[in-house]
Design brief:
CATH superfamily of the largest domain: ATP-grasp fold, B domain
Oligomer: single chain
Radius of gyration: 19 Å
Structural class: alpha+beta
CATH class of the largest domain: Alpha Beta
Number of domains: 3
Number of helices: 12
CATH architecture of the largest domain: 2-Layer Sandwich
Shape: globular
Helix content: 25-40%
Strand content: 15-25%
Strand order of the largest sheet: 11-10-9-12-13
Protein backbone atom coordinates (compact mmCIF):
# COMPACT_ATOMS: atom_id res chain seq x y z
CA UNK A 1 0.00 0.00 0.00
CA UNK A 2 1.32 3.40 -0.99
CA UNK A 3 0.90 6.11 1.65
CA UNK A 4 1.31 9.78 0.76
CA UNK A 5 2.20 12.29 3.47
CA UNK A 6 0.71 15.78 3.45
CA UNK A 7 2.12 18.30 5.91
CA UNK A 8 3.08 21.93 6.31
CA UNK A 9 6.84 22.11 6.77
CA UNK A 10 7.64 25.27 8.66
CA UNK A 11 11.02 25.78 6.98
CA UNK A 12 9.39 25.64 3.52
CA UNK A 13 7.25 28.65 4.38
CA UNK A 14 9.98 30.54 6.26
CA UNK A 15 12.24 30.24 3.22
CA UNK A 16 9.50 31.92 1.18
CA UNK A 17 9.11 34.91 3.50
CA UNK A 18 6.27 33.82 5.76
CA UNK A 19 6.52 34.97 9.38
CA UNK A 20 7.10 32.91 12.51
CA UNK A 21 3.57 33.74 13.71
CA UNK A 22 2.00 32.65 10.41
CA UNK A 23 3.80 29.31 10.61
CA UNK A 24 3.47 28.69 14.36
CA UNK A 25 1.32 25.57 13.90
CA UNK A 26 3.53 23.99 11.23
CA UNK A 27 5.82 21.02 11.59
CA UNK A 28 9.55 20.53 11.67
CA UNK A 29 11.32 18.04 9.41
CA UNK A 30 11.92 15.75 12.39
CA UNK A 31 8.15 15.21 12.74
CA UNK A 32 7.76 14.31 9.06
CA UNK A 33 10.77 11.98 9.29
CA UNK A 34 9.29 10.27 12.35
CA UNK A 35 5.97 9.70 10.59
CA UNK A 36 7.70 8.41 7.48
CA UNK A 37 9.89 6.04 9.48
CA UNK A 38 6.95 4.75 11.50
CA UNK A 39 4.86 4.03 8.39
CA UNK A 40 7.79 2.22 6.76
CA UNK A 41 8.19 0.07 9.86
CA UNK A 42 4.59 -1.02 9.32
CA UNK A 43 5.51 -2.14 5.83
CA UNK A 44 3.99 0.73 3.86
CA UNK A 45 5.57 2.37 0.85
CA UNK A 46 5.65 6.11 1.55
CA UNK A 47 5.85 9.23 -0.58
CA UNK A 48 6.29 12.71 0.92
CA UNK A 49 3.85 15.11 -0.77
CA UNK A 50 4.06 18.29 1.30
CA UNK A 51 1.60 21.15 1.61
CA UNK A 52 -1.56 22.00 -0.32
CA UNK A 53 0.37 23.74 -3.09
CA UNK A 54 2.62 20.71 -3.55
CA UNK A 55 -0.39 18.39 -3.36
CA UNK A 56 -2.12 20.26 -6.19
CA UNK A 57 1.04 20.04 -8.31
CA UNK A 58 1.38 16.31 -7.63
CA UNK A 59 -2.26 15.63 -8.51
CA UNK A 60 -1.91 17.66 -11.72
CA UNK A 61 1.06 15.45 -12.64
CA UNK A 62 -1.18 12.40 -12.25
CA UNK A 63 0.21 11.10 -8.97
CA UNK A 64 -2.08 9.05 -6.75
CA UNK A 65 -1.83 7.17 -3.46
CA UNK A 66 -3.79 4.37 -1.80
CA UNK A 67 -4.19 6.52 1.30
CA UNK A 68 -2.82 9.86 2.50
CA UNK A 69 -1.61 10.46 6.04
CA UNK A 70 -2.64 14.08 6.43
CA UNK A 71 -1.25 16.46 9.06
CA UNK A 72 -1.44 19.64 6.94
CA UNK A 73 -2.72 22.55 9.03
CA UNK A 74 -3.35 25.01 6.20
CA UNK A 75 -2.37 28.64 6.04
CA UNK A 76 -5.26 31.11 6.05
CA UNK A 77 -8.95 31.28 6.94
CA UNK A 78 -11.20 29.36 9.28
CA UNK A 79 -11.37 26.51 6.77
CA UNK A 80 -7.61 26.12 6.44
CA UNK A 81 -7.49 22.65 8.04
CA UNK A 82 -10.26 21.54 5.68
CA UNK A 83 -8.48 22.32 2.41
CA UNK A 84 -6.34 19.20 1.99
CA UNK A 85 -9.06 16.68 2.96
CA UNK A 86 -11.55 18.50 0.71
CA UNK A 87 -9.19 18.23 -2.27
CA UNK A 88 -8.53 14.55 -1.54
CA UNK A 89 -12.28 13.93 -1.36
CA UNK A 90 -12.69 15.29 -4.89
CA UNK A 91 -10.11 12.82 -6.16
CA UNK A 92 -11.65 9.99 -4.11
CA UNK A 93 -8.35 9.43 -2.31
CA UNK A 94 -8.90 8.21 1.28
CA UNK A 95 -6.95 9.81 4.10
CA UNK A 96 -6.17 9.51 7.79
CA UNK A 97 -7.97 11.85 10.23
CA UNK A 98 -11.20 13.78 9.99
CA UNK A 99 -12.76 15.27 6.88
CA UNK A 100 -13.29 18.92 5.92
CA UNK A 101 -16.56 19.47 7.80
CA UNK A 102 -15.20 18.17 11.10
CA UNK A 103 -11.91 20.01 10.69
CA UNK A 104 -13.69 23.32 10.08
CA UNK A 105 -16.19 22.77 12.87
CA UNK A 106 -13.52 21.88 15.41
CA UNK A 107 -11.27 24.80 14.49
CA UNK A 108 -14.15 27.17 15.25
CA UNK A 109 -14.26 26.87 19.04
CA UNK A 110 -17.66 28.56 19.28
CA UNK A 111 -19.37 26.17 16.84
CA UNK A 112 -17.65 23.17 18.43
CA UNK A 113 -19.00 24.20 21.83
CA UNK A 114 -22.52 24.56 20.45
CA UNK A 115 -22.38 21.03 19.02
CA UNK A 116 -20.97 19.30 22.08
CA UNK A 117 -23.22 21.28 24.42
CA UNK A 118 -26.27 20.15 22.42
CA UNK A 119 -25.09 16.57 23.06
CA UNK A 120 -25.13 17.19 26.80
CA UNK A 121 -21.39 17.78 27.29
CA UNK A 122 -20.65 20.48 29.91
CA UNK A 123 -19.16 23.73 28.55
CA UNK A 124 -18.43 27.17 29.95
CA UNK A 125 -21.06 29.84 29.12
CA UNK A 126 -19.80 32.18 26.42
CA UNK A 127 -20.59 34.29 23.39
CA UNK A 128 -19.02 35.36 20.12
CA UNK A 129 -18.03 38.98 19.45
CA UNK A 130 -17.60 39.74 15.74
CA UNK A 131 -17.65 43.55 16.01
CA UNK A 132 -17.23 45.85 19.00
CA UNK A 133 -20.90 46.80 18.74
CA UNK A 134 -21.69 43.24 19.90
CA UNK A 135 -20.20 43.95 23.32
CA UNK A 136 -23.58 44.98 24.66
CA UNK A 137 -24.94 41.46 24.34
CA UNK A 138 -22.45 40.01 26.82
CA UNK A 139 -24.26 38.72 29.90
CA UNK A 140 -21.61 36.65 31.62
CA UNK A 141 -20.08 36.51 35.08
CA UNK A 142 -16.56 37.89 35.54
CA UNK A 143 -13.78 36.90 35.38
CA UNK A 144 -13.91 36.15 31.66
CA UNK A 145 -11.47 34.54 29.28
CA UNK A 146 -11.01 35.95 25.77
CA UNK A 147 -9.38 34.25 22.78
CA UNK A 148 -9.58 34.13 18.98
CA UNK A 149 -12.35 31.80 17.85
CA UNK A 150 -10.35 29.91 15.21
CA UNK A 151 -6.71 29.62 16.25
CA UNK A 152 -4.63 26.71 17.50
CA UNK A 153 -1.36 26.15 19.37
CA UNK A 154 -2.31 28.80 21.92
CA UNK A 155 -2.16 31.65 19.38
CA UNK A 156 -3.81 34.80 20.67
CA UNK A 157 -3.69 33.68 24.30
CA UNK A 158 -1.65 35.97 26.57
CA UNK A 159 -1.47 37.03 30.19
CA UNK A 160 -4.20 39.54 29.34
CA UNK A 161 -6.67 36.90 28.15
CA UNK A 162 -8.12 36.66 31.66
CA UNK A 163 -10.14 39.84 32.20
CA UNK A 164 -11.86 41.18 35.31
CA UNK A 165 -13.60 44.32 34.06
CA UNK A 166 -15.41 45.75 31.06
CA UNK A 167 -12.41 47.97 30.33
CA UNK A 168 -10.04 44.99 30.17
CA UNK A 169 -12.58 43.09 28.09
CA UNK A 170 -12.93 45.88 25.56
CA UNK A 171 -9.14 46.12 25.11
CA UNK A 172 -8.68 42.37 24.66
CA UNK A 173 -11.60 41.96 22.26
CA UNK A 174 -10.43 44.96 20.23
CA UNK A 175 -6.92 43.53 20.02
CA UNK A 176 -8.15 40.12 18.81
CA UNK A 177 -10.45 41.66 16.18
CA UNK A 178 -7.59 43.78 14.84
CA UNK A 179 -4.73 41.32 15.20
CA UNK A 180 -6.41 38.16 13.92
CA UNK A 181 -9.19 39.52 11.71
CA UNK A 182 -11.65 37.09 13.26
CA UNK A 183 -14.25 37.11 16.05
CA UNK A 184 -13.30 36.88 19.71
CA UNK A 185 -14.72 34.10 21.86
CA UNK A 186 -15.63 35.40 25.32
CA UNK A 187 -16.24 32.76 27.99
CA UNK A 188 -16.74 32.60 31.72
CA UNK A 189 -13.34 31.68 33.09
CA UNK A 190 -12.86 28.10 34.18
CA UNK A 191 -10.59 28.30 37.27
CA UNK A 192 -10.15 24.56 37.74
CA UNK A 193 -7.50 22.06 36.68
CA UNK A 194 -6.69 21.65 33.01
CA UNK A 195 -6.51 18.34 31.16
CA UNK A 196 -6.08 16.91 27.70
CA UNK A 197 -7.30 13.45 26.70
CA UNK A 198 -6.13 11.36 23.75
CA UNK A 199 -8.71 9.57 21.62
CA UNK A 200 -8.24 6.83 19.03
CA UNK A 201 -11.02 5.49 16.82
CA UNK A 202 -14.40 6.50 15.53
CA UNK A 203 -17.98 6.54 16.82
CA UNK A 204 -18.77 3.77 19.31
CA UNK A 205 -15.36 2.19 18.76
CA UNK A 206 -13.55 5.34 19.88
CA UNK A 207 -11.38 4.87 22.96
CA UNK A 208 -9.82 7.31 25.39
CA UNK A 209 -6.28 5.95 25.53
CA UNK A 210 -5.20 8.22 28.37
CA UNK A 211 -4.87 11.80 29.44
CA UNK A 212 -2.71 14.20 31.35
CA UNK A 213 -3.08 17.20 33.58
CA UNK A 214 -1.40 20.37 32.37
CA UNK A 215 0.09 22.41 35.21
CA UNK A 216 1.72 25.70 34.24
CA UNK A 217 4.09 27.61 36.50
CA UNK A 218 2.54 30.66 38.21
CA UNK A 219 -0.81 29.64 36.68
CA UNK A 220 0.26 31.00 33.29
CA UNK A 221 -2.24 30.56 30.44
CA UNK A 222 -1.39 27.68 28.09
CA UNK A 223 -0.21 30.09 25.39
CA UNK A 224 1.95 29.52 22.33
CA UNK A 225 5.02 30.72 24.24
CA UNK A 226 4.32 28.35 27.13
CA UNK A 227 3.65 25.42 24.77
CA UNK A 228 6.84 25.99 22.78
CA UNK A 229 8.85 26.12 26.02
CA UNK A 230 6.88 23.55 27.96
CA UNK A 231 10.00 22.09 29.57
CA UNK A 232 10.49 25.37 31.43
CA UNK A 233 6.87 26.35 32.16
CA UNK A 234 4.80 23.17 32.32
CA UNK A 235 4.44 20.02 34.33
CA UNK A 236 2.52 17.13 32.82
CA UNK A 237 1.15 14.32 34.97
CA UNK A 238 -1.16 11.36 34.30
CA UNK A 239 -4.79 11.79 35.26
CA UNK A 240 -5.44 11.18 38.95
CA UNK A 241 -7.61 8.20 39.86
CA UNK A 242 -10.37 10.45 41.22
CA UNK A 243 -10.77 12.34 37.94
CA UNK A 244 -9.80 9.93 35.16
CA UNK A 245 -13.23 8.42 34.57
CA UNK A 246 -14.95 11.81 34.34
CA UNK A 247 -12.27 13.20 32.01
CA UNK A 248 -12.47 10.19 29.70
CA UNK A 249 -16.26 10.27 29.66
CA UNK A 250 -16.49 13.99 28.82
CA UNK A 251 -13.77 13.67 26.17
CA UNK A 252 -15.35 10.63 24.49
CA UNK A 253 -18.81 12.21 24.46
CA UNK A 254 -17.39 15.37 22.87
CA UNK A 255 -15.44 13.34 20.29
CA UNK A 256 -18.54 11.39 19.31
CA UNK A 257 -20.70 14.53 19.20
CA UNK A 258 -18.26 16.09 16.73
CA UNK A 259 -18.10 12.85 14.71
CA UNK A 260 -14.29 13.06 14.67
CA UNK A 261 -12.32 10.04 13.47
CA UNK A 262 -9.08 8.08 13.81
CA UNK A 263 -7.26 10.06 16.53
CA UNK A 264 -6.95 13.41 18.23
CA UNK A 265 -7.22 15.23 21.54
CA UNK A 266 -9.96 16.80 23.61
CA UNK A 267 -8.99 19.63 25.97
CA UNK A 268 -10.86 20.00 29.26
CA UNK A 269 -10.93 22.26 32.31
CA UNK A 270 -12.72 22.30 35.64
CA UNK A 271 -15.29 24.97 36.45
CA UNK A 272 -15.63 26.75 39.81
CA UNK A 273 -17.51 23.75 41.18
CA UNK A 274 -15.01 21.20 39.91
CA UNK A 275 -17.17 19.94 37.06
CA UNK A 276 -15.10 18.95 34.01
CA UNK A 277 -15.97 21.04 30.95
CA UNK A 278 -15.09 20.77 27.28
CA UNK A 279 -12.77 23.53 26.04
CA UNK A 280 -11.90 22.52 22.50
CA UNK A 281 -11.21 19.60 20.17
CA UNK A 282 -8.09 18.91 18.17
CA UNK A 283 -8.81 16.32 15.47
CA UNK A 284 -5.43 17.16 13.90
CA UNK A 285 -3.23 16.72 16.95
CA UNK A 286 0.51 17.23 16.74
CA UNK A 287 2.55 14.07 16.18
CA UNK A 288 6.10 15.05 16.99
CA UNK A 289 7.29 11.92 18.85
CA UNK A 290 8.96 13.92 21.64
CA UNK A 291 7.23 17.27 22.05
CA UNK A 292 3.57 16.85 21.00
CA UNK A 293 0.89 16.37 23.64
CA UNK A 294 -0.69 13.22 22.17
CA UNK A 295 2.56 11.20 22.08
CA UNK A 296 3.53 12.59 25.50
CA UNK A 297 0.31 11.48 27.20
CA UNK A 298 0.37 8.16 25.33
CA UNK A 299 3.78 7.34 26.79
CA UNK A 300 2.37 7.90 30.28
CA UNK A 301 0.11 4.91 29.64
CA UNK A 302 2.76 2.66 28.11
CA UNK A 303 1.89 3.44 24.50
CA UNK A 304 5.11 4.21 22.65
CA UNK A 305 5.13 6.27 19.46
CA UNK A 306 5.27 3.33 17.06
CA UNK A 307 2.36 1.65 18.80
CA UNK A 308 0.35 4.88 18.73
CA UNK A 309 0.94 5.23 15.00
CA UNK A 310 -0.10 1.62 14.42
CA UNK A 311 -3.30 2.23 16.40
CA UNK A 312 -4.09 5.30 14.29
CA UNK A 313 -3.50 3.52 10.98
CA UNK A 314 -5.51 0.49 12.09
CA UNK A 315 -8.43 2.72 13.06
CA UNK A 316 -8.27 4.68 9.78
CA UNK A 317 -8.08 1.63 7.51
CA UNK A 318 -10.92 -0.10 9.35
CA UNK A 319 -13.08 3.01 8.96
CA UNK A 320 -12.26 3.44 5.28
CA UNK A 321 -12.95 -0.21 4.47
CA UNK A 322 -16.23 0.06 6.34
Amino acid sequence: MKVGLTYDLRSWYIDRGYSMDETAEFDKQETVDALDSSLKQMGYETEPIGNVFQLIEALAEGKRWDIVFNIAEGLYGDGRESVVPAILDQYKIPYVFSGPVIMGLSLNKHLAKLVVSAAGVPVSPGCLISVLEDMGKINLKYPLFVKPVSEGTGKGITGKSLVHSSEELLKMVGWILAEFSQPALVEEYLPGREFTVGIVGYSEEATAIGGMEVITSDNLPYSIEVKENYQNYCKYKPLDADIIDECKSVALNAWKALDAVDAGRIDLKGDRNGKICFIEANPLAGLNPIHSDLPILSRMYGIEYQTLMEMIMKAAIKRIKG
